[in-house]
Amino acid sequence: MSELTSGDGSHTDGASGAVGPTAEPIPNPGLPEHTPRPTDVDPALERRAERQVAGMFLAAAVLAAAFCVCYFTVDFTTTAFGYGIQNLTLGVTLGLSLLLIGVGAIQWARKLMADQEIIEKRHPLASSTKDRDEAIRAVRTGAAEAGFG
Prior knowledge:
The chain has 4 helices and 5 strands. Helices cover 54% and strands 9% of the residues.
């Protein structure tokens, strides 16, 4: 038999309609106690992490500018190691630029951004019955007009 659970933690047995509290199969362990990171405690480590992240973003910007320069200045007919020099320089500069943006964003999030858990309760996201009925009516009308079975 099926069992339906409502938002208030009670359940309804699909066959009999009996309502009762739902026992969680695995209890909620809660949030672990917050342990500060080294950059939260030591201002010197925080400044070092800031410089690292800023350096990665600056190097990414320089490589993006180098990509533009290589696009217009490197001759596309010359080769080295069997590869076109223009393709090689464009690939290396764009690839490293994107890599540094990604690594910089990860380091920023892991070392500098706040790491406190924030929980926000949410309300049910169901539409009103009138809106749901209207949407179902529109879908059925569209399906009938399109000739779907």
